[in-house]
Amino acid sequence: MSSQRKMKDNNLRMVVHEIEPLQKKEAEEKLEEPCVPPKTNFLRIRSQLFATLAVSWVSLIIGYSTAYTSPAQASLELDFGFTSLEISWISSFMPLGALAGGLGGGTLIENFGRKWTILLTNILFLISWLTISFAQTYMYLYVGRIITGIAVGIGSLSMPVYTAETIQPEVRGSLGLFPTALGNVGILICFLSGTFFQWRALGVVGGILSIPFLIMVWFIPETPKFLMSKGQDEKARKALQWLRAADADVDKEFLEMQKIQKDSDDNHESILVLFSRNNLKLLSIVLGLMLFQQFSGINAVIFYTTKIFKESGSELKDSVCTTIVGVVNFVSTFIASLLIDKLGRKVLLYISSSSMILSLGVLGAYFYMKNVTSIDVHPLSWLPLISFMIYVLGFSLGFGPIPWLMMGEILPARIRGPAASISTAFNWTCTFIVTKTFLLIMDSIGAHYTFWMYGIIVTGALVFSIAIVPETRGQSLADIERKLAGVRTRRISSIANLKPMPSTC
User: Fold this and answer.
1) Entry pTM
2) Of 8, 241, 359, 435, which is most buried with the most CB atoms under 10 A?
3) pLDDT at 302
C-alpha cells in the first residue's frame, strides 16, 4: 500500500510539474492573443466619454477662472479704484494658490483617490466664487482668488491622472484633450459673459458653472489603478468593465494591471525612487514641457488680452477681439483632438511651436513699428488680431494640452502622484512669474521686445520637442512605462479598442 501511495504521489508531482508551465504559457498566450475589433465604436467608448466629460467640466471652471481678470478688470478698477499693480496681484494670486494646491494635490490623489479629489476641487471653486460674488472689500477678492488658485492647482493635477488611468490607448490622445477643450470653453464663456456682466455678476456665473459636476460625480467610477493600489481588486475590475463596456473582454488589461501593481508592491520603494536616474529623466521631460508651456507667454496673453488690444490701436472693439481670440482658442483644441491620435504628440508640438514663433515675431514687429518708428501702422490695424489668432491656435494645438496629457502618460505609476504634484506646482510657479512680470517687462523694454523674448523661448521649445520629447501615440501606460525604462516589449492593444492599429492585431 505504501509503495502504491508513493507511486501516486510521484505521478501527481509529475503532472503538476507538467501542468504549471502549460498554465503559465496559457496565461501569456491570453495576454498576446489577437485583438477583436468592436462592433460599434461609440458604444465601446461611451462610458469613457461620459467620465471624461464629467471630470473635464471642472476644467471648464479652471478656464473660466483663468480668464476672469481680463473682462473683470475695467469694472474692478471703476468700483475699487485699483491700480495696475493691484490688478496684477488679483491675477497673480490665482497661480500662487495653484502652486499650493499643486504641492498638496499629489498627497490627496494618492490617499483619497482621483475622483474624490476632483470633487473637492469643485467644492472649493463654489466657495471661491461665492466669496468673490459677495465681496465688500478688496480683501474678499484676494481670498477668493487664492481659494480659486488652490482649486485650480489640485484640479490641473488630478484630471490628467484620472483620464490617463481610465481611457484606453487608442483614444487616450483625443479623449485626453477634453479637459483642455472644456477649459477653452470656460475661457470663451468668460469672455462672452464679460461683454454683458461686470465683475460681481461674472462671479455668480462662475458659481453656477460649479454646480453640474456635483451631480455628475456620482455616476462615474474611481480609477481602476487607484482601487487596485488599495487592494480592492473586485471594485477595480467592475470599474474597468464599466469603462470598457459591459460586453467587453477586459481580462488581458486587468491581468496587465495586476502584474504592474504586484511589481510595484513587491518593490516596496520609498519616495526616494522619484530621484532615480530614469525617473528624474522622465520628470525632467514633463518639467521642460511645463516650462515652455508657460514661458510661451500664454497666460499673460489670456489675462491681459483686453489691455493688449487697447494698446495695439486695433479698430475693432477690444471686447470683440477678445471674444474672437476665445473662439479660436475653443475651436483649435477640437482640431487637436482630431489630429493627436493620427499625427502623434511630437508632430503637433512641432506645428504648435512653429506657429507661435511666427505669430510672436509678427506681433513684435508690429509693436516695434507702432511704438519705436514713425511708420504709420493704421493700415495694419488688423495684424494684431490675426497674429493673436495664429498664436492661440498654435498653442492650443500642442503646447496647451500635450504637457498635461503627457504628464499622465510618461510618469511611472509608482511615482505618478508625487511627480505630478511637483510638475503641477512647477507649472503654476512659472505661471505666477509670467503673469506677475508681464506688465513690468512690457513697461520696461516695450511690447516688441517682450513678444520677441517669448518667441526666442518658444524656439527653444521646438528644439526640446525634436530632441527630447518621446512619442506615446497608441501605447498603453504599461507599454510606455516599460519602453521609457528601457525594457523591450511587444505592444498589446486593449481588447475594447476603438480602431485597432495594424501592429496590434
Assistant:
1) 0.72
2) 435
3) 66
